[in-house]
Amino acid sequence: MDSFWGNIFKTKEKKEEGITAVLKKIPIFEELSRRELSSIERILHQRTYRPGEIIFHQGDAGVGMYIIEKGTVEIILEPANQVVAELSDGEFFGELALLDESPRSATARAKTECRMLGFFQSDLFGLIERDPRLGVKIVLRLASIIGDRLKHSNQQMQSLINKIHQLEAEIEKLKETSKKGSRKSRQSSSST
Prior knowledge:
By secondary structure, this protein is an alpha+beta fold. It has helices at residues 2-25, 34-43, 121-130, 132-191, and strands at residues 45-49, 54-56, 64-70, 72-77, 82-88, 92-93, 107-110, 114-120. It has a single domain (2-155), classed as Jelly Rolls, CATH 2.60.120.10. 54% of the residues lie in helices and 21% in strands.
């Protein structure tokens, strides 16, 4: 009888250790204590998605973030159906929705069978009410991550702007070269 109950509790411990291990990889939660991680685990929503199943559509109201426990998710821009990112085990997406309910900027679709953990805005707000210290830790980490992503996006945009300027300069050079070539060919044909 002891081994029966022992196995049941071991299974529960293994499951919690698995979720804790996943959470420790997520920058928002990586610096939390075991007690704080337990508080987070209790409010997470676990769900499995089949391959091809839509997690959310571009334009939907954002209600929370998703953590990929196992599987691969595609982030897709509509209407071109262009895959802009592939995320897998231990990665997360949709975190901006923890702070506001603005429309999703892309569609998320399960590429493989996915086991996901959902952390929703209402859960975060409830956590802030119950444990303000923990809530503030999470919001500050979230702000830091969003700030880092914004800086990265700005750097990418600046790089693209620089490339555009380079291409414009090259086009101008080609136009000048083409004009000079046209003048020379006109001059040589008029002198003959």
